[in-house]
Amino acid sequence: MSTIRPHGTYATPTDTDVAVVGYGPIGAALSVLLAQRGYRVTVLERRPRPYPLPRATSFDGETARLLAATGIGAGLSRITEPATGYQWRTAAGQTLLDIAFSAQGRYGWPDANTVHQPALEELLMARAASLTGITVLRGHRVVDITQDDQRVTLTAETDDGTSRTVRAHWVVGCDGANSFVREHLGVPLTDLGFSYEWLLCDVELHEPREFTPTNIQICDPARPTTLVGSGPGHRRWEFMRLPGESSAELNREETAWRLLKPFGVTPDTATLLRSTTYMFRAAWADEWRVGRVLLAGDAAHLMPPFAGQGMCSGIRDVVGLAWKLDLTLSGLADASLLDTHAEERRQHVKDSILSSVQLGRMICVTDPEAAAERDATVLAGRRGRTGPGQPEPAKPLSAGLLRRPSATPNGAVVPQGRVAAPGGTGLFDEVVGRGFVLLSTDDPRPALGADRWSFLRALGTRVVRLSPPGAGRDAAVRTAEGTGQGLTDVTDDVTDVTDVIDVDGCYRAYLAEHDATALLIRPDHHVFGAAAGPEDTATLVDDLRSRLGASAPAGEPIRTV
């Protein structure tokens, strides 16, 4: 249940606090995150009903952690399957790349999760329907946007020609690759011009089959091919269009079945949910904020599929936007905080796009001699390696709302381990709660003083003191079933320090690695800054207050559960 916030510092009346254009997984996640914080959200979606076919097929462990913050964590295991690995193979079956995924990864969730996207959207939309404050206007196509320094007015039309206006303090365009919002604002795209056409085949298997590893890239110049999981009972095959091959020839159902047959996929063993050609792109918006309008998801960036980071990047966009809009709307931060949306996310997705392009340049090779040279070079580099590699940690932020962007671990995504407290044992986010977190090996209160404490209190900061594994466990600490996903917060009173036991030693090891005694962690789990000692911890809090650009008043934060 959510609590509707007052309109904060805004004097100009509006119909809603935030209008979201587009109701795919990115727009739905943003709507939920804002409604959970007590804001009025109006969603305008041009489609009269949810899109029934999948687009994304997976998300990583960091994204699973972020999705759990929308309140759907307990349902993710029902609609996803952990991927076991990602392997590239030559036409002869030799291994070019081999990455093993863990079912319990660095961020407390499986390293890679395959999903049938319509099931994920259904879960998010059911969560949205349970919250007060979200209004969804389906079949409403936005046709005009005007704004002044206090609000934005959207004009939308329905199929029968009815016109409607919605006034909001802020608007976020989550309306996909062909974004009206981006086009209307005149925001240019930087397009790398890297694009190939592929035949996409989504399949529902009649009987369970094991694919090891889950995700495979066949780097065969005769036909580069992708095989990936896409949630329980579903798989996707993708086949690259060859030079001299027409789109019309490739984009036929008979062609799809012919290409699927060598993999044991026939009309007798599977249902072809969809076969269609598509062109991926590698591009990003040059501006992510124009006045009171912001962009997120595919409206802001497009990337090749080879690193599986398209939807993940969109979820990161809106998780960051949600807490920044919260601080701005509540008057705890200046509106300039929203400029960090582009500063942080554009460079982050640019790096992901460039990585995806680099992978694509290796995969999309149809010249046999070039492929043979690639294979020889990569195989030579793999000599002496035993066993698969591990996935890289999430990319850190390199700019934006950070204490010192160049200093580690600032900008990094903090790992998630299990902790124990009087209310239970489980993953840190579920036991301690979400939002800003001040994590320390000692009690920071004496060094902080009343003024800093009031600031942290206004932000709703969780202040946590770590104890080493095995310290002080007693009968008051019960062990939750499974991973602890779904536990309720054990403290809502930020005047107290929450004492937790670092069950896995995850956090104390992370602090020791960075010669730190405290971390100030943002609501999106990126480290704002680290401190060594009580005085430095006090300065760390001062730095955050200064960067937010507004005076945070003392008093209770408005909490929702």
Description of the structure:
This protein is α+β, with helices and mostly antiparallel strands and 561 residues long. The strands form 5 sheets. Strands 1, 2, 8, 9, 10, 11, 19 and 20 form an 8-stranded mixed beta sheet that branches. α1 runs parallel beside α3. The radius of gyration is 24 Å and the shape is globular. The N and C termini lie close together (6 Å). The C terminus is likely disordered.
Please tag this protein with its features.
561 residues; alpha+beta; eight-stranded mixed β-sheet; 13 helices; globular; disordered C terminus
Quick overview:
This protein has 561 residues and is an alpha+beta fold. 29% of the residues lie in helices and 25% in strands.
Q: Mean pLDDT, nearest integer? A: 91
Low-confidence stretches: 473-494, 551-561
Q: Terminal Cα separation, in Å?
A: 6 Å
Report strand %: 25-35%
Main sheet overview: 8 strands, mixed
Question: How many helical elements?
Answer: 13
How much helical structure, as a percent, in the residues?
Answer: 25-40%
Task: Please state the overall shape, judged from the principal axes of the Cα atoms.
Answer: globular
Structural class: alpha+beta
Rg, rounded, reads 24 Å
Give the tally of β-strands.
28
